[in-house]
Amino acid sequence: MSSIRKSVSKLFLTTVGMFLFGFALVPLYDVFCEITGLNGKVTGPTFSEYENVGNREIKIIFTTTNNDDMPWFFDSLKSQMRVKTGEQNLLNYVFTNTTNKPMIAQAIPSVSPGKGAQYFHKTECFCFEQQFLEPGESITIPLKFVIDPDLPKDISSLALGYTLFDITKDLIQKQAGN
Amino acid sequence: MSAVIEGHHDDHHHGPAKGISRWLFTTNHKDIGSLYLWFSFIMLFIGGAMAMVIRAELFEPGSQIVSPEFYNQMVTNHGLIMVFGVIMPAFVGFANWLVPMQIGAPDMALPRLNNLSFWILPAAFGVLISTFFMEGGAPNFGWTFYAPLSTEYAPPTVTYFIFAVHIMGASSIMGSINVITTILNMRAPGMTLMKMPLFVWTWLITAYLLIAVMPVLAGAVTMMLMDIHFGTSFFKAGGGGDPVLFQHVFWFFGHPEVYIMILPAFGIVSHIIETFSRKPIFGYESMVYAIASIALLSFVVWAHHMFTVGMPIAGELFFMYSTMLIAIPTGVKVFNWLSTMFKGSLTFETPMLFAIAFVALFTIGGLSGIMLAIAPADFQYHDTYFVVAHFHYVLVPGALFSIIAGVYYWLPKWTGYMYDEFMGKTHFWLSFVSVNLTFFPMHFVGLAGMPRRIPDYAMQFADYNMIVSVGAFLFGLSQLLFLYVVLKAIFYGKKATGQVWEGAKGLEWTLDSPPAYHTFETPPNLESGEAKA
Predict the structure, then answer these.
(1) Can you give the pLDDT at residue A51?
(2) Residue B115 domain-assigned?
(3) Is B527 a catalytic residue?
(4) Cβ separation of A115 and B312 shorter than 8 Å?
(5) Which domain holds residue B433?
């Protein structure tokens, strides 16, 4: 009988282990994407300075999208820039709450092609930060970025897209949950 | 030899209890096996009725019978019920009936857990089906429930769906723990692992797959639950989560899941083919290794379901080649079945007909699978009816035919009565013709670009869809005939002998038909050569 007990406890532990593994897939996936730069995933602000400023010129395209029926005005001041690798660049983004109620939003970045994501360093940005705006309020937030001189030769242009999400409801829900 | 003489029960043990309490409180593996099989039979007709609604809607282009919203609910629940309510419980039913009898054990290792794992299953499907009568309707996001469709855009009943999946998962996990524990600890003396019947082998490996992936599914739906109700952002892009992550987690479960639904079928078909070829199975050992390698490979191929999400070329290639590799062990199995039949003294009773149809039609499904594995080609086939044709070929004339074949094969053993051979053959030919009529033209409309999961379609697909619908109605009706054949056997069938089939080998055939309520209370002696597995 003890052999049965042994089998059952081993199998039960495996079950628990696999349940936890399911959750472990979440950070594993992020780490994997960050290392390989898959999925155009970019991290928050990173600090980097380059001594050997490259002389390659890269075209950067900036897109902004509003998720679903997010009513805010959200755009970058330029839609395209030509930048030198290794140099600091600055671009301003404008957020305007066009509704008559206070709202909270969050912009999620994505770089394409995906394998260029890890060479796109943002030294200052609003990614993953929550923006709270009163009705009619407008703010301008700068994005500072450097393009890594190690950017693979076959990439001559990069696109940085931001999608703006309305997270007012989620945040209220979260606070209610706490 | 421990066969109990007919009508003479062992004095130390009682027979089954009387009335409903026999079924509610039973811990007998034979009773629980029957419960599982009847449950899956009932669910087959419920899921089948949903398929009929789908085919009725698609009989002609345009919106005909049901609203698009209801159509989505039908598609979703048809898939969920057929996968979790029909194929999986049917195989667990087979395992309950056969594993103890085939390894010479008196019962399953954990009989009370066995009772629990069956009885929570009707509860799970009760919860799922009850959502049809709730505000917002039943789940409508497809059986793969991709986030954010199943989280941010889901009907409020998604919470019931999540709990139903949790319960189904718990049931499968408990069942698997039971099967593995039984097989590893309760084999008759002398039955080494490499002497086990193939059905037992397939279930041992299936149970390990279930234990490895059902908890991951439970994790995925738990993350959904937290995203919906507790403000987390596992799959919510707005909070920094990633919807593609959902697909990875889901298919990490989902791909082993499709082998969970086919490995026991391999075991059943192997037994039937060797019986009616009157030859031992060709390449027993290679069969075991093939099953094991299919199971191992199933963990590294999941992303072939999501070639179009924007993977880098290295990922596409890895998943493409690893997927194609599965064709090798599968091919080994198919050739072993053919070699078993080669120069055998074949007879074509109903189980054999279904088994041969399984080999032929499952191979068609396998080949379309290889076409889908080609990453660049998949960009064309993805989410078309070609995919629908592919997985229905492996699940209907694949998994379902093996279940039907197994029921015909072991029904005389289980009930003690023979089924009507003429009616069985009629059932086979009707099913065989209609299943092909239903699913074969789907390849053509799929290649021509008809998208799946849409209640309407372009004019040029009209003719084939009408043929498909006619085939589907015929296939649905044929299964009513199956129910009739089973009931007729139970109530009016001729008495079956213990051996039942001339060529049948294995411990279960050394017992009476039907076997006594308790069998193999003293394990059979395999060394004596009297009872050979």
Answers:
(1) 63
(2) yes
(3) no
(4) yes
(5) 23-510
Give mean pLDDT, residues A117-141.
84
- CATH architecture for segment(s) A39-177: Sandwich (2.60)
**Annotated catalytic residue: which of B304, B392, B427, B518?**
B304
Looking at residue B530, its pLDDT comes to 47
Closest CA to B174 of B122, B224, B108, B249: B108
Q: Residues B377-415: pLDDT tens digits?
A: 999 999 999 999 999 999 999 999 999 999 999 999 999
Nearest CB among A114, A115, A163 relative to B237 is that of A163
* Residue B502 falls in the annotated catalytic set: no
Could you tell me if residue B266 is inside a domain?
yes
In whole angstroms, give the CA distance from residue A17 to residue A34: 25
Average confidence score pLDDT of chain B: 93
The verdict on A36 touching B (C-beta cutoff 8 Å) is yes
From the candidates A13, A16, A25, A106, which should be mutated to test the interface with B, based on the most B CB atoms within 10 A? A25
Each residue's pLDDT tens digit, B17-66:
888 889 999 999 999 999 999 999 999 999 999 999 999 999 999 988 99
B contacts of A18 (beta carbons < 8 Å): 211-216
| B92: its two tokens | 């667990």
Residues of A in contact with B177 (CB under 8 A): 8, 11-12, 15
Read off the tokens for B42: 């009932």
- Is the confidence metric ipTM above 0.85 for this complex? yes
**What CATH number does the domain containing B215 carry?**
1.20.210.10
B185 → closest Cβ in A7, A17, A167: A7
Q: What is the pLDDT of residue B2?
A: 43
pLDDT of residue A176: 64
The per-residue pLDDT for range B425-477, each reduced to its tens digit, is: 999 999 999 999 999 999 999 999 999 999 999 999 999 999 999 999 999 99
Beta strands in chain A (DSSP E): 57-66, 73-76, 80-84, 89-96, 103-112, 120-124, 130-133, 138-147, 157-166
Please give the full DSSP string across B45-108, using - where no structure is assigned: HHHHHHHHHHHHHTTSSS--SS-HHHHHHHHHHHHHIIIIIIIHHHHHHHHHHHHHHHHT-SS-
Query: Total domain count for chain B?
Result: 1
